[in-house]
Every structure is written in C-alpha cells, then in structure tokens.
Amino acid sequence: MTDQTPVTPAEASLEVAAQVTDLPEGAIELEVVGVRHGAFGSVDGGDTSGFGGLVAPIVMPGPSFPPYGGWFDEATDELALALADRGVPMTTAVEKVVVHCGEITFVVRREHLLTFVSALRDEPALRFEMCMGVSGVHFLADKGRELRAVYPFLSITHNRRVRVEVTCPDTDPHIPSIVSVYPANDWHERETYDFFGIIFDGHPALTRIEMPDDWLGHPQRKDYPLGGIPVEYKGAEVPPPDERRVYS
Amino acid sequence: MSTDNMSAEDVAYESAIDDDAYADSYDTSEGRVFTLSGGDWDTVTPPSEGEKERIVVNMGPQHPSTHGVLRLILELEGETVTETRCGIGYLHTGIEKNMEYRTWTQGVTFVTRMDYLSPFFNETAYCLGVEKLLGVTDEITDRASTIRVMMMELNRISSHLVALATGGMELGALTAMIFGFRERELILDIFEMVTGLRMNSAYVRPGGVAQDITDDQVARIRETLPLLKKRLKDTSDLLVDNAIWMGRTVGIGYLDLSSCMALGITGPILRSTGLPHDLRKSQPYCGYENYEFEVQTTDTCDVYGRFLIRVGEMHESIKIVEQALDRLRPGPVMIEDKKIGWPARLSIGSDGQGNSPEHVKEIMSESMEALIHHFKLVTEGFRVPPGQVYSAIESPRGELGAHVVSTGGTRPYRVHFRDASFNNLQSTAAMCDGSMVSDVIAAVASIDPVMGGVDR
Fold first, then answer.
1. CB distance B413–A103 less than 8 Å?
2. Best exposed site among A143, B151, B310, B427 by fewest CB in 10 Å?
3. Interface test with A, best of B97, B126, B131, B424 (most A CBs within 10 A)
4. Which residues from B are below 8 Å from A132, CB to CB?
5. Confidence at A24, pLDDT banded by 50, 70, 90
6. CA B431 to CA B302: how far, in whole Å?
C-alpha cells in the first residue's frame, strides 16, 4: 500500500470518467456510475493482496440507437408521434434509450414524465394499461443523477413491457407523481419515498408506508448504514455485515 | 364538547377514563375523541345535537381475521363501513437492503422468506432476473427448469390451500380450514423430501436448483397426486355449492375490470373479471409454453368468483405437475458454466444433511485448484455484468416482479420486488367502502395478502 491519501469515489469517478469518455468519434457514450477500488473493498490499509491500487470504473449499459430490433422500433416511432401530438418532441422528453438484455428503457427527463406516461397509457398503439410500481436506485457517486426512479410498464393488449427511468439529484430529490395517471402507483411511490427520500410531487398523501412515521432517514439509500450487531463466536468477534471486508 | 356543559355523571366518567392509559379522551379540531379498548362503550357520552358521531375501528394488526399483521382502519356508521384504510409495515424486515450485503447466491436465502406461502416463486423470480443479467437464460438445463415448474405448481396448490383454509376459517367454515391445512401437509412433505425444508427452502439457485431429485422422490410425488386430487375435491365440495358460503361471498368485494387496470391488480382478482391474463401463457418462462393447462376465469368480479378460480387453478396445477414429472429426463440440474454453478453435487448424507463425499475427496486430497475454485466461488461468489432487468412471473397472488440491478460486483447493487400482495391490498378500499363489516373480512380474504411479501 502507498501512503498517499486515497482518492474519494467522486474524485476518482470524475478522473476515470474523463478517461473513458475520451473516445473516438461515433463511439457510444458510456454511463459511469461509480468507481471500484482494489479487489477486497478495504480502503484503510490492510490489503496485502497487491490489488489495493486497482481502480476500475463502473459502467452501466450505454445508450442504444435505432434500429433497436423487434417491436421496439415500432413502439418508439408511435411514442414519438404521440409525444409530438402532445407538443413535446421525443428528443426533449427522452434523454436516451437503452436496450439491454432484451428489455427497453426510456430515460425520461422528469419535467416531461407525466406527458410521457399519459402517452404510454392513452395511445391505442401503445396501450400500457398497467404500471407495475416504481423502484428506486441510489448511485452515490454519480453526481447530479444520484437517485433513479424506475417504472416497469405492462401492456396486456400488445403483450409488451417497457421500462421508464427518471433521475434526480440528491440535492433536489423531486420527481412528479404519476398517481393521477396510474393510481396503482400510490403505495409504490410512498414506498420509494420511504426508502429513498424521493419526493413525488403531486402525490395525494406522500407519507411513510413501511417504516414508522417518526423514522429518521431513508434506509435504502447507499449512505444509510445496514446496522446490525457484532456477533461473538468462540471468543472472536464477527462484525455486522456492512462492516465486513468484501470482495468489491 | 366543552367541559362546561357536562353533567356530574359525565365528569365522573371523564376522570375514570383519564385514569385508564389505554382509554383516554382528548379534544381535537374536529371535536372530542374517545379511545376505547373494549367493554367501556358506556363511558362515552353521546354527541349532543348538531354534532356528528364518527366511529373509527382499528382492526388489527393483531387480529385473527386479517391474514397476519395487517391493520385495517375502518370508519363505521353502524354496521356499514364508510371508509377503509390499510396500515402496513408491521412485518418489514429489510430483506431488500440485506441482500445488498450478501452474494448473489446468498440472496436466495432472503427472498424465500418474503412471501412465505410461495417461497419457490420468490426464488424463481429472483433467479430468472439474475440469469437474464448473466445472459445464461438459454443455458439453464431442461431438468432444472422442469423441476422449477414442478415445485412452483405444487407451491401454487399449497398457497391456494392456505388461501381457502384461512378464508374459510375467517368466515366460519372451520372444516375447510382443517381440510385445507391437512392437504397442505401432503405438499409440504414433498417439499421437505426434495429440498430438506418444509418452507424457506432456498432451493432454486441462480443457474439451476440446489440439488437433484431422485427417482424414489419422483415416484413418491406420483403417489401423492391422486390422493391430493381426491382430497382437493372433498375440500371444494364443502364450499362450492354451500348456501352459507355463497351467502357470504357472492356479490361481495366487487371489483370490475377497469378498477383492476387502474389499480394494477393481477392474479385471481383480475381473472375474476373475465380477463384471462396469466403470465404463464402470455410471457412464458421456465418452459411453460410446453405445458397444457387452462387459464381459469369467472366473470362475477366477486369473492365467490375468486374462490372458484383458486379451486380451478389447483386442479390445473396438478395437471402441470403430472406433465412435468413426465418431462423429467436425466441430466444436470445446474448450469455447465463452472464459474456460476457450485461444483458440489449434493446428496443426502447419513446424517440427513446435504453432503457430497466425492467432491470432498477431490478438493481435500486430489486437486488444490479445485479447492481454490470452490473456496473462491463460495466466499467471493460470481460477478454479474452491470445492468438492470425486470423479471416477472405469475405467483399465486398475481404478478411477482423482481427489479435486479448490478454494477458488476459480486453482490446485488439493488433488488426490488414488486409483490402482488402489496399492490393488490390497495384495492381494499375499493372493495369494502359501503359494505358491512363482515364483508370486509371476506373481501380481504379474497385478496389473499401475505404480509411477509407485502412488507418484505
């Protein structure tokens, strides 16, 4: 181990991001959400493996470009038309489209979320009758886009699924509520608020649902500790899971 | 009510109530609120002219008719429910958070404990998600998929049996309860025989299943099925044309198709509106396209219709289990990829625990590399490429979805479950408002919520 100050994930992330985005023209833009150090997750010394200096970016699947294949193209075209009818060009509403593992994700700008989901529900060619809730994801090192709300949609008519992702920064955790369009998301949005602190503007009663009403903090955020108590085992002590050394 | 115009009697009651920590009264902006704990109704002074009396009753979270720790907050007008609200969260155990601190394989041990009446569905939804991210969906062996289907369908029967048993008990049909739990034992015995555990088996693993089933076990499952069929008929015969049962369930808990769509309801509640939506048919997984079965529907939109659907689905599930047993061919039950599948092929040892003598011999006395590989795979686990997927399956209660996010590590970055019970409980108010208190019980029983899955 060297005695230099360890770089914070945020700094390293920027550094690495600067390196990996320096790509030849035409190459796709990468989505770096964090950085991995070493191979054993220990940041304060004690790693004698020789892998301690390893720095690797965490790159999520990047944007895809048409043709996406299968029914994705048809649905995207219909969506573009439907959005145009509602006065919002596709390029304004949608940041990017990601096709990965045979699933399509629309990353939607939060100010256009309601228009977008209304089009998904009402357009006969799309007809996504059901929203299967919302799940939160917290990328601590992805500055300005820390919190993600991920909505899976199901169309029973066309037997299709799409996913909509919306990002918002930790400093301004607001996303419009889609309960007015999909009432099913009432409890799901409360749950995501409870666990991630994303405030769904326009929700009829955004209160905690799983945690007690007077709970402090939002437990599923990555900066919220797991808790737990050290366990004594034959004289030695086993630390709680979130303090153990891990294979990162 | 102000204290000025209270009679001496009222004041006496007032002080008596004040002494009881569980039954006090206090002024609010909407009038005086009395908290009663039972047997003390006569201590409440009736509202004076022009004041509205509102009675709010907490049903649960510890109430035998609420299917576990569900709290229903009912506002009553006599026997009529005017407003229903659900309080949940009493069984929240932080499973999703805990999974972020264990390997991908260890995650199975957690998810099996969510909806404790349908553990194999939780495991399969999660494993299908992990396999999709790994890109190995096509490499899962036929035998593994067939065993998964068989276990899931047996599980569907055991879960529906509990739905009928507890639903029956809550409406006073105690024989249905006894029968339901007795039949469920037959299936739990099969689970114990195959996995070693009656519940929470952690049997389905990313890449396949934990251990193979033997020919003896297949034979015993075959023997059980006719008995199960006969007994299922006995149980349903008790209720299907039962006038009392129909009186309690027909036309109760009405929820039509458009309400189901708006509230994201899936499973038997959606099928009771006549829409044959079943993910096993529409988006098959684990090879369900190779099985013949009917999707059960009714068009009554009520509790009785959902009951009939569950009865029908149990018989369909037996058909699927029979087909699965016929489809079983010898072969591996774990993926070939040695970087994912655990090297040991467990069998039941003399102590009744899973053991693998050949594998132990190999790693302890023959191959150092095999030992290292085994150690790395078990302690470190495998890495899953970055990305996110949503995998959905048809659980006994509706669509069970797993949103799995990986950042390329040996642990899940985030796993979220879209549990059908959680979503379907939202329909309680739509089903119950305006009905009698006794109908609330029937309606909630027909939703069949499992709080372990709701709260996770």
1. no
2. A143
3. B97
4. 264, 390, 392, 399, 401, 418, 423
5. very low
6. 9
Average pLDDT value for chain B: 86
Complex ipTM:
0.85
Q: What pLDDT sits at residue B359?
A: 81
A229 touches chain B (CB under 8 A): no
Q: Confidence band (pLDDT; 50, 70, 90) for B212?
A: confident
Q: State yes or no: pLDDT of B290 exceeds 60.
A: yes
Helix axes B437-447, B142-170, angle to 10 degrees: 170
Beta bridge partners of B25: B34
* Distance in Å, alpha carbon of B420 to nearest chain A alpha carbon: 9
Residue of B nearest to A137 (CA): B414
Query: For chain B, what percent of residues have pLDDT higher than 90?
Result: 43
On the 0-12 / 13-18 / 19+ scale of CB atoms within 10 A, B436 is middle
The string of pLDDT tens digits covering residues B303-325 is 999 999 999 999 999 999 999 99
Q: Within an 8 Å CB–CB cutoff, is residue B97 touching chain A? A: yes
3-state SS string over A142-207? CCCCCEEEEEEEEECCCCEEEEEEEEECCCCCEEECCCCCCCCHHHHHHHHHHHHCCEEECCCCCC
Q: In this predicted model, which residue has the larger pLDDT, B209 or B20?
A: B209
What is d(CA B368, CA B371) in angstroms, rounded to the nearest whole number? 5
In this prediction, residue B49 carries a pLDDT of 67
Instruction: Pick from A21-30, A58-67, B9-18, B385-394 the range whose average pLDDT is largest.
Output: B385-394
Contact call for A137 and B405, based on CB within 8 A? yes
C-beta atoms of A34 and B407 within 8 A: yes
Q: How far is it, in rounded angstroms, from Cα B430 to Cα B149?
A: 34
Q: Which residue has the tokens 């190779």?
A: B290
Quick one: pLDDT band at residue A179, thresholds 50, 70, 90?
Answer: very high
Name residues whose C-beta falls within 8 Å of residue A190's C-beta, 6 or more positions apart in sequence.
A203, A205, A206, A207, A208, A209
Q: Do A100 and B387 touch (CB under 8 A)?
A: yes
Strand (E) positions, B152-253? 204-205, 208-209
CA distance A145 to chain B (A): 16
Angle between helices A72-85 and A113-122 (to 10 degrees): 120
Residue among A101, A210, A220 whose CB faces B389 most closely: A101
B153 and chain A in contact, CB less than 8 A: no
Mean predicted confidence (pLDDT) in A135-140: 91
Which one, of A200, A185, A166, lies nearest residue A94 by Cα?
Answer: A166
**Which position has the token pair 């264990």?**
B102
Q: So what's the pLDDT on residue B354?
A: 67
pTM, entire model: 0.87
Residues 174-193 of A with CB under 8 A from B: 182-188, 191
pLDDT at A45: 58
Residues in B touching A131 (Cβ below 8 Å): 264
- Read off the pLDDT band of A181 (50, 70, 90): very high
Which residues in B116-226 belong to E strands, given as ranges? Answer: 204-205, 208-209
